[in-house]
Amino acid sequence: MIALYTLMEGVIAFFLIAGSIFALIGSLGLTRMKDFYMRLHGPSKISTLGVGCVLLASITYFSLLDGGPSLRELLITIFLFITAPVSAHMLSKSALHQKLARDPRTRGDPEEFQEDHEHSVEEAPQGDSKLP
Amino acid sequence: MIRPRKWLPMPLLSVLLLIVWLLLMNSIALGHWLLGGFLAIVIPLITEPFWEAQPRIKRPWLMVRYFFRVLIDIVIANLEASKVILDPRGRARPAFVEYPLELQENFAITMLASTITLTPGTVSAHLRMDGKTLLIHVLDVGDIDDMKRHIHERYERPLKEIFEC
C-alpha cells in the first residue's frame, strides 16, 4: 500500500514538473520570439499542455485523496481547449487589422497587409454622409 | 444517429450539458442525473432561437477518433514549439499561408480553425469574409505546400467526413 502511494506521488510530481516546465517555455517564447505573430504561438499552445499537465496531477491527487475519481478538472481542460484557440484567433485578427510589423524573414504576403486605399482615413465618408 | 425532435432540438448540446452538470457536481447520484437531465432538456428548448442551425453529425465514431488524433498532435505540437523557442540560434522560419477551405459549414470551419491553432506550429489568423480562405501563421515551416497537404489530409478530410459525408 505504501508502495502505491510512493508511486503515485512520483506520478503527481512528474506531471507538476512537466506542466511547470511547459508553462515556463511558453512564457520564454513571449520574450524570445521576434514579432507579434510568433509570440502568439507560445501562449496559445504550450500553455494548454502546461495547464493540462497540472490538471492531470490535480485529478490524480484528489482521486487518491477522496478515494473516488475526481473529474471536475476535466471541465477546465475542455474550456481551455475551446477558449485558447478563439482568443489566439481574435488577437491575430486584430494584429492583422492594425498591420503590425512582421519579422522580415516571414514568407508569404497576404493581401491583408497591403495598403487598401478605399478604406483609408482620408477617404472615409465625412460630414453628413450616411454610414456605409 | 440521434435525430432532432421537437422537445430535443439539439441532442449534442443536451448530452454536453448533462456531462458538464455531472462533472460540476462531481457525483453520479440519481438525483444529479435527474436534475442534469431536466436542465439538459429545458436549456436547449429555451435558447434554441439564439442558435445557428446545428450541423448534423453523420458519423459520431469518427469524431471520437478525430478527438484522440488531435489530442496526440497537441502533445507533439508542444514539443515542437518548445524546440523552436529554445533553439539558441533562433532560426525559426515563419510564414503566412493562405489555406483554401473546402469545408462550408460554419461549425466545421470553427473546428478546423481551432484544431489548426492547437496543433504543430500553426495559428489560424484570419478567415476571409468570403469564407473560403483561412490565413494561417506558421512558426517554422520548410515546405509550405507540404504543410497545406498535411492539414488537408489529417484534419480537413476527417472533418468533412464527420459533417458532410
Automatic annotation (TrEMBL), chain A:
<keyword id="KW-0472">Membrane</keyword>
<keyword id="KW-0812">Transmembrane</keyword>
<dbReference type="Pfam" id="PF03334">
    <property type="entry name" value="PhaG_MnhG_YufB"/>
</dbReference>
<feature type="transmembrane region" description="Helical">
    <location>
        <begin position="12"/>
        <end position="30"/>
    </location>
</feature>
<protein>
    <submittedName>
        <fullName>Multisubunit potassium/proton antiporter PhaG subunit</fullName>
    </submittedName>
</protein>
<feature type="region of interest" description="Disordered">
    <location>
        <begin position="101"/>
        <end position="132"/>
    </location>
</feature>
<dbReference type="GO" id="GO:0015385">
    <property type="term" value="F:sodium:proton antiporter activity"/>
</dbReference>
<keyword id="KW-1133">Transmembrane helix</keyword>
<feature type="transmembrane region" description="Helical">
    <location>
        <begin position="74"/>
        <end position="92"/>
    </location>
</feature>
<feature type="compositionally biased region" description="Basic and acidic residues">
    <location>
        <begin position="101"/>
        <end position="122"/>
    </location>
</feature>
<feature type="transmembrane region" description="Helical">
    <location>
        <begin position="42"/>
        <end position="62"/>
    </location>
</feature>
<dbReference type="InterPro" id="IPR005133">
    <property type="entry name" value="PhaG_MnhG_YufB"/>
</dbReference>
TrEMBL record, chain B:
<dbReference type="GO" id="GO:0005886">
    <property type="term" value="C:plasma membrane"/>
</dbReference>
<comment type="similarity">
    <text>Belongs to the CPA3 antiporters (TC 2.A.63) subunit E family.</text>
</comment>
<keyword id="KW-0812">Transmembrane</keyword>
<dbReference type="Pfam" id="PF01899">
    <property type="entry name" value="MNHE"/>
</dbReference>
<keyword id="KW-1133">Transmembrane helix</keyword>
<dbReference type="InterPro" id="IPR002758">
    <property type="entry name" value="Cation_antiport_E"/>
</dbReference>
<keyword id="KW-1003">Cell membrane</keyword>
<feature type="transmembrane region" description="Helical">
    <location>
        <begin position="7"/>
        <end position="24"/>
    </location>
</feature>
<protein>
    <submittedName>
        <fullName>Multisubunit potassium/proton antiporter PhaE subunit</fullName>
    </submittedName>
</protein>
<dbReference type="GO" id="GO:0008324">
    <property type="term" value="F:monoatomic cation transmembrane transporter activity"/>
</dbReference>
<keyword id="KW-0472">Membrane</keyword>
